[in-house]
Amino acid sequence: MHDEDFCCAVCLDFFIEPCIIKCGHSFCHLCIESHLNITEKCPLCRAFPGNPIKNRQLESLTMSYISFRNLSTSYYERMKSNRKKNVQDEELKSEIRSQVRQQVGIGLEHIGDLEGDTVTIRLKSSSSK
């Protein structure tokens, strides 16, 4: 067995609350939910996934594998907490992008991904002309 057997193809880390979708691929619950909010296709095979179903057997196997590798349960819990925070951060960034696009009325594709901590956009008010 290898680490990648117990890793999500979206986040590339150990499965956290793994789910299986209709095509048979498994992902972390938060990863697949976040992905499906953007596109309703499997990240690996592009098939329509249907509703994710918790895969308790894979979760148990993953935890056993982590334990076998001498990774503590607290590490698993920290990973889980960090993953939730990262997903929430990405969702917040996405919401901010959407709101800015609506407010400004233009696409921001030329800015690219908002990887930095701060994005400043200065707008001229119509009354300053």
TrEMBL record:
Keyword field: Metal-binding, Zinc, Zinc-finger
Domain annotation RING-type: ranges: 8-46
Keyword Transferase applies: no
Source domain of life: Eukaryota
Pfam families, A to Z: zf-C3HC4
GO MF annotation terms: zinc ion binding
InterPro entries on file: Znf_C3HC4_RING-type, Znf_RING, Znf_RING/FYVE/PHD, Znf_RING_CS
This protein's name: RING-type domain-containing protein
Organism: Caenorhabditis latens
Lineage of producing organism: Eukaryota, Metazoa, Ecdysozoa, Nematoda, Chromadorea
